[in-house]
Structures are given as structure tokens and as C-alpha cells.
UniProtKB/TrEMBL annotation:
Belongs to the small GTPase superfamily. Rab family. Its EC number is 3.6.5.2. PANTHER family: LD44762P. Keywords: GTP-binding, Lipoprotein, Nucleotide-binding, Prenylation. InterPro entries: P-loop_NTPase, Small_GTP-bd, Small_GTPase, Small_GTPase_Rab. Transmembrane segments: none annotated. Gene3D superfamilies: P-loop containing nucleotide triphosphate hydrolases (3.40.50.300). SUPFAM superfamilies: P-loop containing nucleoside triphosphate hydrolases. It is found in: Membrane. This is small monomeric GTPase.
Length: 227
């Protein structure tokens, strides 16, 4: 297992970079918040207003897997079209992607193939991806049958979950499966070359994020379609 000798007790935790991708308003920020800040107000709560991501943001979640200490650095990209070039520029150097659509929004599902293309173009074919059909608490508004999500994931050979950031359905499991797949892959490469690689790409991503946040801010109150 990747853990033995890497990120074990007394050693620095392994840094793993995960990027959230998908159209605007599908729930990327809410999923990250639910996973990294369990005490925050639930998504879909009428008292929590929607704030579109502007540019890029990230959160860190420490986890332990089979004695391996891992620091998940989860980058939350903006889904709005005008940020597409900026968002996809963060894909490079990531080990994993959480690709999200909204089960009540057919367009967000139909765009998944294009997001998959962006991921493979920018991050290569070896990265791990999971597909999430979010907002499964809104069954009465469902526009994408579960079988369609399962079929698409099967065609791409990736795991699939229907999730609800609002009701905390499958969020933990989805990140666990992705982290496990990434660690299994890392097991096959040299830990030190991996550490050097992540140190360099992480530094450049952080630097870029500081510049972007400084120039355009973090979140704003622009509403996405349907809100
Ligand atoms: N009912 C329900 N609403 C959700 C869920 N997840 C997110 N929402 C709501 O959907 C809206 C958009 O959520 P965000 O998490 O900001 O979406 P996003 O994908 O990060 O959007 P961008 O920042 O524009 O890319 C907000 O009003 C959330 O409260 C969910 O699982 N169920």
C-alpha cells in the first residue's frame, strides 16, 4: 500500500491535489464545503445564498488511509463559461478530479463529455476521475435518470455516485474512493519523484491563486441560471 513508508507516522503527509470540475451551479463549492467543513450550513438551505465562485479557491482536508497520512488539497474552480480558460489552467498537475453535474439540469449532464476532454487534454490520461450526479435530494425535479449517469461513467471507466451536498449523501464515500484510487496509482511510482513534482506544481498553483484572488476577488453574488 502507498502508505508504507510514505506519509506514515513521523513523515510529512503526502500532498494530493484534487480539482472540482463541472458547470456553474451544480454544487461544486457545496460539496467541498460539506466535505471539508462538516459544521457549515447545508447547501440548498434557503438561508444560505448562492455565491458563484470567481476564479479559484482551495481547501485542505487531512485524511489517513491505511496508516498513510494524506493532505488533500481540493481546488474549487468556477463553472461559469467566462472563467473556463482560467479554471482549466488549474487542471495541470492534479492527481484527481471530481466531475460534477446536477441531476435536475440536463445541460450540466450533457457537458460532462466536454469536461472529460478538457481534463485529459490538460492533465493527461492517467489521472483519476469520479463522476457525481449532485442534488439527488431533489428527486421530484430529476431531469437525468440515474442509469444515464451510471452508463456515462461506465463508458469512461470511472466510479459514479449520486450525491447530495444538502443531505450529506455519498460525499465522504466519493472522496474516499477517489483518494484510494490515487494512492494505489502512487504506489507504483517513486515517492521522492512524486514529492518533488507536487512541491513544484503546488507552489506554482498557489502563486497563481494569490495573483488571481488579488486581481478578481473570491466569491461574488452573481446568480447562475435558474437562481
Ligand atoms: N437541493 C440542493 N441544493 C444544492 C446542493 N448542492 C448545492 N446546492 C445549491 O446549488 C446552488 C449552487 O451551489 P454551488 O455549490 O455554489 O455551485 P458551484 O458548482 O460551486 O457553482 P459555481 O461556483 O458557479 O461554479 C446553491 O444555491 C446551493 O445551495 C444539493 O445537494 N442539493
Amino acid at each position: 500500500m502507498a502508505g508504507q513508508g510514505q506519509g506514515g507516522a513521523g513523515r510529512p503527509a503526502l500532498l494530493v491535489k484534487i480539482v472540482m470540475a463541472g458547470e456553474s451551479c451544480v454544487g461544486k463549492t457545496s460539496i467541498v464545503r460539506r466535505y471539508t467543513e462538516p459544521g457549515s450550513p447545508p447547501a440548498g438551505d434557503p438561508t444560505s445564498s448562492y455565491l458563484a465562485t470567481i476564479g479559484i479557491d482551495f481547501k485542505v482536508k487531512p485524511v489517513t488511509f491505511n496508516d498513510t497520512r494524506v493532505k488533500l488539497q481540493i481546488w474549487d474552480t468556477a463553472g461559469q463559461e467566462r472563467f473556463h480558460t482560467l479554471s482549466t489552467s488549474y487542471f495541470r498537475g492534479a492527481q484527481g478530479f471530481v466531475l460534477v453535474y446536477d441531476i435536475t439540469n440536463l445541460d450540466s449532464f450533457q457537458s460532462i463529455t466536454s469536461w472529460m476532454k478538457d481534463i485529459h487534454e490538460k492533465a493527461g490520461d492517467e489521472v483519476d476521475v469520479i463522476l457525481l450526479g449532485n442534488k439527488c435530494d431533489k428527486e421530484s425535479e430529476r431531469a437525468v435518470p440515474k442509469q444515464k449517469g451510471e452508463k456515462l461513467a461506465w463508458e469512461h471507466g470511472i466510479p459514479f455516485f449520486e450525491t447530495s451536498a444538502k443531505d450529506n449523501v455519498n460525499i465522504e464515500d466519493a472522496f474516499s474512493v477517489l483518494t484510494k484510487e490515487i494512492l494505489e496509482k502512487l504506489e507504483k511510482i517513486s515517492v521522492w519523484s512524486y514529492r518533488a513534482h507536487t512541491a513544484v506544481t503546488s507552489f506554482s498553483m498557489l502563486l497563481k491563486q494569490v495573483v488571481v484572488q488579488w486581481s478578481i476577488g473570491g466569491k461574488n453574488t452573481l446568480a447562475c441560471a435558474g437562481h
